[in-house]
Amino acid sequence: MILGIIGPIASGKDKVADIFEKKYGFKKIVMSDFLRVEAEREKIQVEGRYILLRIQAELRRKYGEDYLIRLALQEIRDNKWDNVVISGLRTPIDVLEAKRRLKARIILVDAKPETRFQRQKKRARKGFPKTLDQFIHEESIDNAALQFYKTVKMAQMKIDNNGSLKEMEKRVHDLAKTKLGLKPIRK
Question: Looking at domain 2-178, which of 3.40.50.2000, 3.40.50.300, 2.40.50.100, 1.20.1250.20 is its CATH number?
């Protein structure tokens, strides 16, 4: 089973993917890791989302709009993985190709902007917005550039992540059981 996780900045996509990895035995791919590898290869210092957005735009321009999802597909094939969670699908083409080529089921992880801004602040990454207004403004630029408003409409399931980590974990387990028919692995 392939799961695609979509959601706005700091919504909890990677945390949800971590649960599928640790509790259900899925392999995890984080789409932004492909961008970080490229940044490292090009010796580009990643100090803010705009750098990753620029790298993403350049890669898509150079190698095609579906380049990043093709990298994920190649990793899955090379490793012969069956159960994979892909965190951070961002564009409509990523989701369309994940659904078409991988039969992925798409989960939206969402939270209010204020909640996500507070989480992003705790990360304390360089070059990220310092105010809620800056956060919302930068997110709107990202969303327009990546057509994220279209991507969100492609979700088949949703996890509301406005509460605590414990509440989110419960929602993930409920979704895994009721919508996906999964049982936690024993360790």
Answer: 3.40.50.300
Domain-wise residue ranges, the chain: 2-178
67-122 per-position pLDDT tens digit: 999 999 999 999 999 999 999 998 999 999 999 999 999 999 999 999 999 988 88
pTM of the prediction? 0.90
Rounded to an integer, the average pLDDT of 22-42 is 93
Judge whether 34 and 70 are in contact, CB under 8 Å. Answer: no
Q: Can you state the angle between helices 67-79 and 31-41, rounded to 10 degrees?
A: 100
Give 176-184's long-range contacts (Cβ < 8 A, gap of 24+). 176/20, 176/23, 176/24, 180/1, 180/3, 180/105, 182/1, 182/24, 183/24, 184/23, 184/24
Task: Tell me: pLDDT of 187 over 80.
Answer: no
